[in-house]
Design brief:
Radius of gyration: 21 Å
Mean pLDDT: 96
Bound molecules: glutamine
Oligomer: single chain
Number of strands: 11
Order of helices and strands: HHEHEHEHEHEEHEHEHHHHEHHEEHH
Low-confidence stretches: none
Largest sheet: 11 strands, mixed
Strand order of the largest sheet: 1-3-2-4-6-5-10-11-9-7-8
CATH superfamily of the domain at 2-262: Amidase signature (AS) domain
Shape: globular
CATH class of the domain at 2-262: Alpha Beta
Strand content: 5-15%
Number of helices: 16
Length: 496
């Protein structure tokens, strides 16, 4: 039954309902695929025993007609979500050995709906990065390669283990988190769908915090339908997260196939950046054509403050991170490095010096600097003002359009090691995604084509706050028109 791993979530759901196979069969097939994919380094922790135990329980529920919306679905969970009794590291040395006694709300929602966790996926340390290369547990390798070229490529970041494991068919879907693009950019680099929901749609409770005013969890899957199914389970109002919003979770799947005639789609002039890759530009116009052919109206729009988004993000995100990461002191969680028993300052210094990697230290230093007396007004407050202007740009255009179409990334996946010496060029990866987080809006990335080297490229749709429905509707039109059927050639089983 080796082709069980090729099933989408919706297909697996149908097969389970029809009793063509059991949840245990489905789980075993994916666990085997994971065993053969060591060369991709997708997982920090594998939980096969737990998965098989939950799969057996799932079969019992299916047998007694009590299936949840994610019943029997083998999924991977980004190692930023706290999971009860399962190590949670944020891919940082400082959290190695930390085993939460609680479950994040999002992963609990998935469990309650019958999902089966196969393991915890690798990520950039504390979700800081765009390539998964800042992980303490070594980079994840993209299952995709350029045609006729064995150069190992990045899977995007920070949710790189999640994106690679979905693309390599090691799971039917995975959770991600997106602070500045970490769901959408890796989705684009690996030819899958990724949704960053509206801020407040999914609870942040139990997710290791990076930048709390920007962080949001979302699904990563191989189809738009699967993303709709999975977001329906992940989203909820949660009184334990004061920024969670008390609104009903709509039936996202019901949006697929609905008419898009008359919807207005904005094309923002400012996203046509200098030196834009002609292949990306071409894909972007194809996307507009596909939507126009389906009856939507394409409108040119302006988001004038776009050029300030990256600088504002790279002040606000590090500022919040420096504050959030102050809790890692060698006392409460994971790593403790100390030579004497009576010097608490030494404990803090040694633990943090050894426990954090270079990129995390860079962010803590930047964040501490922009929050310090004297610089707070010049940098942090200024960045917050810019953030308001960016949000206002979106409010203004959403009077005129129902969604916005842009490329997801300025390039296809690049080689491991190609950008690690130049943080600024790494930060530029987020140029099309950070604005969405700064404004708290929902965004979806859909695989839309291949570049000349045979690597996937994504298109992004941005929606009004809490209007994920329109994104699913339009996303499924783009998905059908793009007819993206390519999948990576499996070289990793032999390499493992
Ligand atoms: N690449 C961005 C950063 O490094 C975004 C990361 C994310 O969304 N978690 O901050």
């Amino acid at each position: 039954m080796s082709n069980l791993t090729d099933l989408t979530m919706a297909e697996a759901r149908d097969g389970l309902r029809a009793k063509d196979f059991s949840a245990v069969d489905l789980t075993k097939a994916h666990l085997e695929a994971i065993e053969g994919a060591g060369a991709l380094n997708c997982f920090v922790t594998n939980t096969p025993d737990l998965a098989l135990e939950r799969a057996a329980q799932s079969d019992n529920r299916i047998g007694s007609g009590e299936s949840g919306s994610m019943e029997g679905m083998p999924i991977a969970v980004k190692d930023l979500f706290c999971t009860r009794d399962v190590q949670t590291t944020a891919s940082s040395h400082i959290l190695q050995g930390f085993t939460p006694t609680y479950e994040s709300t999002v992963s609990q929602n998935l469990i309650d709906d019958g999902a089966i966790m196969l393991g915890k996926t690798n990520l950039d340390e504390f979700a800081m990065g765009s390539s998964n290369e800042t992980s303490y547990f070594e980079p994840v390798v993209n299952p995709w390669r350029r045609e006729g070229d064995d150069t190992p490529l990045v899977p995007g970041g920070s949710s790189g283990g999640s994106s690679a494991s979905v693309a390599a068919r090691l799971c039917v879907g995975a959770t991600g988190t997106d602070t500045g693009g970490s769901i959408r950019q890796p989705a684009a680099f690996t030819g899958i769908v990724g949704v960053k929901p509206t801020y407040g749609r999914c609870s942040r409770w139990g997710i290791v915090a990076f930048a709390s005013s920007l962080d949001q969890a979302g699904p990563m899957t191989r189809t738009v339908r699967d993303a709709a199914i999975m977001l329906g389970s992940m989203a909820s109002y949660d009184p334990k997260d004061s920024t969670s919003i008390d609104r009903d979770v709509p039936n996202y799947e019901a949006e697929l196939g609905k008419d898009v005639r008359g919807l207005k789609i904005g094309i923002p002039t400012e996203y046509r950046v200098d030196g834009m890759d002609p292949e990306i530009e071409k894909l972007w116009s194809s996307g507009a054509d596909w939507l126009r052919d389906a009856g939507a109206e394409i409108v040119d729009i302006s988001l004038p403050h776009t050029k300030y988004a990256l600088p504002a993000y790279y002040i606000i995100a590090p500022a919040e991170a420096s504050s959030n990461l102050a809790r890692y002191d060698g006392v409460k969680y994971g790593l403790r490095v100390s030579e004497s028993d009576d010097d608490i300052t030494e404990l803090y210094e040694k633990t943090r010096a050894e426990g954090f990697g270079t990129e995390v230290k860079r962010r803590v230093l930047i964040g501490t600097y922009v929050l310090s007396a004297g610089y707070y007004d010049a940098y942090y407050i200024k960045a917050q003002k810019v953030r308001s202007l960016i949000a206002q740009d979106f409010t203004n255009v959403f009077d005129k359009v129902d969604a916005i179409l842009t490329p997801t990334t300025p390039s296809a996946a690049f080689g491991i090691g190609d950008r690690t010496d130049d943080p600024i060029s790494m930060y530029l990866n987020d140029v099309f995604t950070v604005t969405v987080n700064l404004a708290g809006l929902p965004g979806i990335s859909i695989p839309a084509g291949l570049d000349a080297n045979g690597l996937p490229l994504g298109l992004q749709l941005i929606g009004r706050a809490f209007d994920e429905q329109t994104l699913f509707r339009l996303g499924s039109v783009v998905e059908q028109a793009a007819a993206f059927k390519a999948s990576p050639v499996n070289w990793w089983s032999a390499a493992s």
